[in-house]
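Here's what a typical entry looks like (Protocadherin 1b):
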Amino acid sequence: MMCQSASEMWSRWSAMLVWIFLLLCCSADVVSTIIYQVTEEQPPNTLIGSLASDQGLPDTGHLYKLEVGAPFLRVDGKTGDIYTTEIPIDRETLKDCRNLFEGDPCFLEFEVSITDLMKGTGPRLIEGRIEILDENDNTPQFSSPVLTLSIPENTHVGVLFAIPVATDRDSGSNGIADYALTTGPEAANLFSLQVAQDSDEKLPQLIVLGNLDREQRDSYDLNIKVVDGGSPPRQSSALLRITITDANDNVPKFEKSHYEGELPENSPVGHSVLQLPHRRVTFSTANQGQDLQDPSQHSYYDSGLEESETPSSKSSSGPRIGPLALPEDHYERTTPDGSIGEMEHPENEGGSRSRKAGWQ
């Protein structure tokens, strides 16, 4: 009895399924799906596909109308053929294809209604998708025709510096394939190029091969080229300007290790003691108030080193050549053996006025 009940239930379900199938077949809103392929940037009136032949419909007696897909597509109302229009299909500008990962397909959706004029039934709706195939129609470009990198002169050999990457609106095999660096003879032994791979992106990096010296040369102009993987490949280039920045790698030196001079004991303030060519000598007075009130009382010398001047320590502020003069407030008396003695004031007439100076 249970077997008969199961058999009857199966018969009823079978009949119901057949009835639903017939209803769907006879319905005016049956939806079918179809997929075509076309390469982007095709000229106008390029045939993409024929709905009549693809759907097994007769060539006459049907009306085709494009519901979704304008302005990139048009449909022949009698034959159901789908064509491109005057507006080209650019894969890189389609809304649904802008943020795709490499290798993901790009689709343009369309809908076409088909009405059987002989039967007078309601229209059938066909939903379809067109896969837009990539064409190598974009050239890779750098962000600027001149790229700049600043590299300190004390950079060690083997250090890498990132070069701004180029961009290509094409993807996959038509995207960026490689970079190349061209150097002149003056930079051939100093710089090279390495291309690293980060996920799906290629990253150009400059390698320092030799020792840099800003005092010998402070800039280099190189040429960097980017090429894509299309057939034929597209390429562009930019000027890569390397600026060598200064590092404190030179020690200031006097021309001599020892200087001597004689000074009469009654020498006035500001009397010239020594003439030191091409090196700097600085001093400060004990009277800082006098420093601020009358800077002209201070004599100093500079050969063109960095500027440095504070209210408490008057040193050079620009290249100049001049004598080392006697400070107004005090000087140091030396003993006959050259050692530094006590501090003497110019007004102390009992003190020795002879001075022996040495700088190392």
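The CA atoms of residues 6 and 68 lie 47 Å apart.

More examples are in the samples folder.
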